[in-house]
Amino acid sequence: MMALLRRDLTLALRSGGGFGLSLAFFLIVVTLVPFGVGPQTATLAGIAPGILWLGALLACLLSLDRIFQLDFEDGSLDLLATAPLPLEGVVAVKALAHWLVTGLPLTLAAPVLGLLLNLPDGAYSWLLLSLATGTPALSFLGAFGAALTVGLKRGGLLLSLLVLPLYIPTLIFGAEAVRRAADGLSPATPAMILAAITAATVALIPYAAAAALRINLK
Amino acid sequence: MMPELGKYAVEVLSAYAVSILLIAGLVALSLWRSARMRRELRQIEERHRRNGR
Amino acid sequence: MSIWEYANPVRFIRTADRVLPWAAALTAAALLVGLIWGFFFTPDDYRQGSTVKIIFLHVPAAMMAINAWAMMLVTSIIWLVRRHHVSALAAKAAAPIGITMTLIALYTGAVWGQPMWGTWWEWDPRLTAFLILFIFYLGYMALWAAIENPDTAADLTSVLCIVGSVFALLSRYAVNFWNQGLHQGASLSLDAEENVHDVFYYPLLFCIAGFILLFVTLVLLRTRTEIRARRIAALLAREARAA
């Protein structure tokens, strides 16, 4: 299991593309927002929590199709399916690897981008915390979407259409927690619900994703 | 014959028109595809019978 | 004699052939009575004016939009557990009907909301939930369309339907949390306190019956079509192998 994780991380780092690109994408989205809505700091501060969450979510979406696609094409996914490690475990490890190379860097970069959008002072810790608890759910749901579309030649767009509606609850509670913190309210309730959603997703989605993978490998 | 719809006539009429159009479209599509599949299946089964199986 | 006998495609087609004319006639009758009664012979509401007549389309369409998804969920589970092809094909057949109902509910809701709330679209929990349901239908149908092998498509869409149901429900409550709405509560409930008035209630019952019958008729018709389409594909594949 550790070996698989190490292998996936090495591959992601060597091939370069993945996590650097999604960070750059996040930066660009956040930079474009003031051009669209105007440079008034009050407006920007009001929408900053939503924009930061939305930007992180879209950046996370970019690299989803690579979770299984390469391994499916070169046949190593077939090997993994027959390996002693259950396929549910393979899915969980691959989703974890995806989170480590995208979700985690996005979380760490978010406060810096929050400065650009004039995010109110009290919200930074909650921005970090909510992204740290929310982005694992995004990676695991993404792995499910990637498992559904792995056999398709041009699955990228379909993958977004399937995965984005599944992101709605995570986005609502994550952005709500940051917004409440920015308004000086207590963000505890949405933050706890967010944590519950992530916990349930991480625990259960590997079964659904593994089922989808088995169907695709048949 | 037409009931007095008052100032909301446009809203009410368009709601009915759009809904009926959508349902009619769905029914028409379903019937059309049903007829086509029935015809194609009959042709293919005919061909199979002639080929003696 | 159990319900599983209808899982046999040939039996299903034979039964559908027999039932369909009656179902279609009943549908037409219920819809005609309900809609004509509702449109021509109901008074205006003292607050909502004539827009109250939209209820005869809005409420049944909204009910069927949700019920169609529920039926797809049940048939998807049956397909995954018992591998009856008819079940998977019925789910496929129901999706376009469900999405049409969702569209009707959204459109009639918008034209009803405009004069009442002063806006076409309001990010109200119920409206938002229907928009989300619409997106889920789109994704489900897109996945069916994208996969070539019919059994793989049936398997994968079933898994998606189950996971999607959980998240659609979750979104429904999340949206509640996120915005308290303008939308009135349920129009039909057993505690008659805030139910709609009798004058509207009886034609509404006819309309609901009509929409349910319409759904049943269309599902039978479309499932029969899908079974035939599968049979055609199977015969063509056999020909290709023989040649």
Can you give a write-up of this model?
The complex is a heterotrimer of chains A (218), B (53) and C (243). With 218 residues, chain A is mainly α. Chain A has one domain. Chain A has ten helices and no strands. The radius of gyration of chain A is 18 Å and the shape is elongated. The longest helix of chain B is centred in the middle third of the chain and has 42 residues, at 9-50. In chain B, 15% of the residues are buried. Chain B has one domain. Chain B contains one helix and no strands. Chain B has one helix at 9-50. Chain B has 53 residues and is mainly alpha-helical. Chain C has 243 residues and is an all-alpha fold. Chain C has one domain. Chain C is built from six helices and no strands. In chain C, helix 2 crosses helix 5. The N and C termini of chain C lie far apart (41 Å). Mean pLDDT of chain C is 86; it is low at 189-194. Classes of the chains: A mainly alpha (218), B mainly alpha (53), C mainly alpha (243). The interface between B and C is medium-sized, with 32 and 36 residues.
Concise synopsis of the structure shown:
The complex is a heterotrimer of chains A (218), B (53) and C (243). Chain A has 218 residues and is mainly α.
Report the total helices of chain C. 6
In total, the number of strands of chain A is 0
Helix-strand string of chain C? HHHHHH
Tally of individual domains of chain C: 1
Mean pLDDT of chain C, to the nearest integer, reads 86
Taken in chain order, the helices and strands of chain A follow as HHHHHHHHHH
Averaging pLDDT over every residue of chain A, what do you get?
Answer: 89
Radius of gyration of chain A over all CA atoms, rounded: 18 Å
Largest interface: B-C, 32 and 36 residues
* Largest beta-sheet details of chain C: none
Distance between the termini of chain C: 41 Å
Helical element count of chain A?
Answer: 10
Strand percent estimate of chain C: under 5%
Task: Specify the oligomeric state.
Answer: heterotrimer
What layout of secondary structure does this protein have?
The complex is a heterotrimer of chains A (218), B (53) and C (243).
Chain A: H1 2-15, H2 17-37, H3 41-62, H4 69-73, H5 76-82, H6 87-116, H7 124-149, H8 156-166, H9 168-182, H10 188-217
Chain B: H1 9-50
Chain C: H1 9-40, H2 55-82, H3 85-117, H4 125-146, H5 150-178, H6 198-242
